[in-house]
Amino acid sequence: MASPLTFALLILIAVLAMFMAVWQFVRTREQASDRLSEYGRSSNFVAAVEDNSRASARARKRRYGNGRSSIGANIATQLSTAGVSLTAAEYVLIIIGLGVLGLVLGTVINGALVGLVVGIILAVVPVVMVRSRISKRKRALTEQLPNVLTLLVSALRAGYGLTQALEMVVDQVEAPASEEFSRVIRSVALGIPVQQALEEMTDRVQTDDIDLVVTAITVQYEMGGNLAETLENIGDTVTDRIRMKREIRSLTAQQRLTGYMLAGLPMMVFLFLFIVSPDYVSGFTTEPILMMIGIFALVMQGTGFLLIRRIVDIEV
Questions:
Q1: Model confidence over 102-145: pLDDT tens digits?
Q2: Whose CA is closest to 213, among 225, 240, 195?
Q3: What element of type H or E holds 68?
Q4: Residue 246 has pLDDT above 60, yes or no
Q5: Counts of helices then strands in the chain (DSSP H, E)
Q6: How far apart are CA 161 and CA 34, in angstroms?
Q7: How far apart (Å, rounded) are the C-alpha atoms in residues 272 and 180?
Q8: Nearest-angstrom CA–CA distance, 248 and 294
Q9: Is the Cβ–Cβ distance between 12 and 100 less than 8 Å?
């Protein structure tokens, strides 16, 4: 038992050393932020530049259909949409570190197969968390949009310009809307036109309602007209859409709960039996036939869960 444990500890130490080496390499990119802070520039300046470059890359990909986008750029886009302050390298290192940690611990506890399963589960956890954060953040932005439009309409009718109205939104609205519009204000402060800054925010948050608002603002800037009245009409439309989405979520709550139960209950029962009586389920880790049955069951459960999610995902 001592030999496998020593081997596992050596692997863990090697992975941690690699993690720290790459971490230090990534941290060197942040020295520019420290130098700018000495001259009165905060880290928001660098954050705005990074946000603008990522948003511009996404806009080019969407407009010109460039399929050669790197994996790192896609990961950076997801992290930006989720509002996670990590770089793509840091995020990948966290996934690798958790996967190797689960592999080592599972192998020491009950063999290589269990280690592989535990490693995959731990590696998937950050991905699931980021996707969940993206979904929650989009929903929160959509629900805040009527209040944002109300403030914009009031400010425009009071004689404020669009940039001043956006600053008022940043001051009076909570996150995540205040964070996104704060990025817009920082972009405008860097000399980017307000229309382009809003379009970059649309590429960043990726919601249809905000895309509708930004499109209306862009058209009004190009064609002229009463922007306050247009935003007021869009606010009524967005409010109706939000009400319909809430009704749909209420009507499909039972189906979504059923999907979670069908996907999670068998695995919870298996883990409970594995802890209470390991011999009762040991065949799933030693017998090839039972292993194939277990894998087939997991695939079918995952397929059923995805089908249920697809059915209840009704677009408005």
A1: 888 877 776 676 777 778 888 888 888 888 888 888 888 888 88
A2: 195
A3: none
A4: yes
A5: 14, 0
A6: 34
A7: 44
A8: 35
A9: yes
